[in-house]
Design a protein that fits this description.
Helices cover about 35% and strands about 15% of the residues. By secondary structure, the protein is an alpha+beta fold. Strands 1, 2, 3, 4 and 5 form a five-stranded antiparallel β-sheet that branches. Helix 2 packs parallel to helix 3 and helix 6 runs antiparallel to helix 7. The longest helix is centred in the middle third of the chain and has 24 residues. It is elongated, with a radius of gyration of 40 Å. The relative contact order is 0.07.
Length: about 230
């Protein structure tokens, strides 16, 4: 073990400064320049403001009072060129990024069933385009039109079914949410309502047509916005 006097000599000896890598004028080590250029300069030059097109990467200023490090500079320039190519490709990719309009356009042509259920893979998975033609609805019976109206809510097919039902003298009652048709001429007719015997479609309990006698159909409940 060292004596007390030798220990005091060791403690009094000034310590040599720690060896550190040379620093650039930016306050970072030269060995860190390629990494910092790739991590910091790319976002500033390429992604700032989502700029498009080719961009350049700023190079680090040489250290003052030190000779240029040719090997380090050459390595840095090579990495900067790679970073510049990466930044250019990244910026060019922003030109083809899908936007909200593209997503809406894609969803408009994608059929999503309202009540998904596992069925046979051999069954049709999308509606036939023929159901987009109004002429097809002219060939459908009343039951089919009612089915489309109540089970294709908010669709173009519901609109076409309602349009065809109106052509067949059916009228939609907004209060009872069903269709009425005159069974005979009204017994009473005023500016506010008409009263008589009507045929209506029972979609809640029987899925059939029924007759309602002495029924007052108030015109305020008549849906007439569909033309």
């Amino acid at each position: 073990l060292p004596s007390a006097s030798s220990a005091s000599q060791v403690s009094s000896t000034p310590m040599a400064p720690a060896i550190s890598a040379p620093t650039s004028s930016r306050g970072v080590t030269t060995s860190q320049l390629p990494t910092i250029n790739a991590a910091i300069d790319i976002p500033m030059a390429g992604l700032g403001g989502l700029g498009l097109g080719n961009t350049t990467v700023a190079s680090a200023a040489p250290s003052e009072g030190r000779p240029p490090q040719h090997s380090a500079v050459g390595q840095t320039e090579g990495r900067q060129q790679q970073a510049s190519s990466f930044s250019s490709a990244l910026n060019d990719s922003f030109a083809v990024v899908p936007n909200a309009v593209d997503q809406e356009r894609a969803s408009a042509f994608t059929y999503i069933p309202q009540n998904p259920y596992p069925t046979s893979a051999s069954y049709p998975s999308t509606p036939s385009p023929i159901f987009d033609k109004p002429a097809v609805f002219e060939k459908l019976g009343t039951d089919a039109l009612f089915f489309i109206f109540y089970y294709a809510q908010g669709s173009y097919q519901q609109y076409l079914a309602a349009l065809e039902l109106k052509k067949q003298s059916w009228r939609f009652h907004k209060k009872y949410m069903t269709w009425f048709q005159r069974h005979e001429e009204p017994q009473v007719t005023t500016d506010e309502y008409e009263q008589g015997t009507y045929v209506y479609f029972d979609y809640e309990t029987g899925w059939c047509t029924r007759i309602k006698t002495d029924f007052r159909f108030e015109y305020s409940y008549l849906e007439d916005s569909l033309q």
